[in-house]
Amino acid sequence: METQKSPPPALPPRLLALAPVVYVGTAVWLLAFVLLALGHYVLDLVPPIWMWTALCGFVLGMIGVPVMWWQSSASRRGSRGAQKVQ
Questions:
Q1: Measured in whole angstroms, how far is the alpha carbon of residue 68 from the centre of its chain?
Q2: Which residue ranges does UniProt annotate as crossing the membrane (predicted)?
Q3: Is there a contact between 46 and 39 (Cβ–Cβ < 8 Å)?
């Protein structure tokens, strides 16, 4: 015997907002890079691998921003392969 299951409730819009996460995350990586660079070159306290890791995080965030814009524009255009946020 099969029972009818109701669909899960929709997530609130604040949980679906991708842009604030990408922008804030990228800014935090940039801030971390600046602070770690100061700590490495000025104070000689920080291992350089931390600084380069923060730089990689920032660069990946900067790659993610146009990808996010491209995906949202494809969704607005109605592209079949675009992910849609309900």
A1: 9
A2: 21-43, 49-70
A3: yes
Q: Is the dihedral of CA 49, 19, 24, 62 positive or negative?
A: positive
Give per-residue pLDDT as tens, 6-44.
888 888 888 878 889 999 999 999 999 999 999 999 999
Q: In b/e form, how buried is each residue of 46-65, taking b as 16+ CB within 10 angstroms? A: beeebbeebbebbeebeebe
Instruction: Please give the model's pTM, rounded to 2 decimal places.
Output: 0.76
Give the model's pLDDT for residue 60.
97
* 60 is a domain residue: yes
Structural domains counted in the chain:
1
